[in-house]
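Pipeline run #58 for the internal structure catalog. This entry was flagged by the ingest filter as a single-chain record with no existing model, so it goes straight to prediction. Upstream metadata was stripped on purpose; only the residue string is passed forward. Reviewer on rotation: M.T. Logging verbosity set to normal.
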Amino acid sequence: MNTLIIMKVALRALARNKMRSSLTALGLIIGVGAVVTLVGIGNGAKAQIEAKVASMGLNVLQVKAGSLSSGAVRQGEETAVTLSLEDADAIRREIPNVVAVSPEVKVKLQAVSPVRNWKAEIYGESPEYFSIRQWALSAGEYFTEQDVRTGNLVAVLGSEAAEELFGEENPIGEVFRVQSIPLLVVGVLVPKGETASGDNQDDSIIVPITTAMQRLIGQKKALAGLRRINVQAASPEAMPEMEVQIARLLRQRHGTEAEDADEDEDEEAEEFKIRSQLELADTATESTRTMTMLLAGIAGVSLIVGGIGIMNIMLVSVTERTREIGIRMAVGAYPRDIRRQFLVEALTLSCLGGLIGIAVGIGGASIAAVMQEWPAVIPLESILVAFLFSGAVGVFFGFYPARKASRLDPIEALRYE
């Protein structure tokens, strides 16, 4: 019996029991749909987190001030006062593959415009900060190295800070005050949204580092140190080695390279910490990745349950069609023909369930993405894997009933009532 005839016989048998065939395929539809939906939602969440990390810029290392200790009391990250502008200059001069460096200070102060006031994060940065962060302008221009050298009273506003201070008015060329210090708005940045840690990047005012240190924070604090130094590497491959070189350079400069290893850690102030953007991305996406795998695994269980349902129904079908099988064997069908017929039936049910499940999963992921306001990312390979797995489930769970049918004794089968 050729393959085409076997397929026609198998499909005709499934068509005779439409309701039973539909309910059998339903288990796989639910399983495949759940897997595709959860993978799409998980990958979408991961992509959103990665986009937020990427909003920090490309190939970025953050040299953060460490924790200041007072006796047994540790003050937390970015409270140490040892990082300086000279450290930033040394990194720029002495570390290979450095593209840009921006020393940073930060303070939250009340800003007052002629019509409104708003408490915003104020950052002191170098002009390279905008290229490091790949932060484009929506209006105006960036401040320059000349503004940094002379400590000019200029500012670039985040989109939210600009709206809160000036409403619908064009802020370019307008003046606002921070601690009675007048600042001229020279630029407004395009919106960037939140960082992976939840900070609102658009609610920020960025001024030259010298202006922030000398006029807004105060000379006494300025001498104390920087909050962090942002460093951009030439490539992702250069980042691990650069991290080691920066750490070695700063230890040499601060005289901590040969510290006593037995010194009590509770009494020691950590002067700085280096965080790689790659490390931040891995940390931010790890929980999402783990949860996606867990949920996909749980959904995969329903595929197994669907396969067991196929095996159960095929066994019932073998019992119901024992006499039919006997007649086919009596007129010349070989055991392999019977086995192939039942395998085709099982494979048809599983593949059909897989295709419908994929469509349901894509639809479910798209609906969830609209509701959660993040993209649904369903890679082609995950769709192929889901379809192939559903087919494999049909073959695996259909083999035993097919084998049982092919081993029936024709005479006994003809006698079966």
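catalog note: The longest helix spans residues 277-320.
catalog note: The CA atoms of residues 238 and 311 lie 55 Å apart.
status: ready for reviewer M.T.
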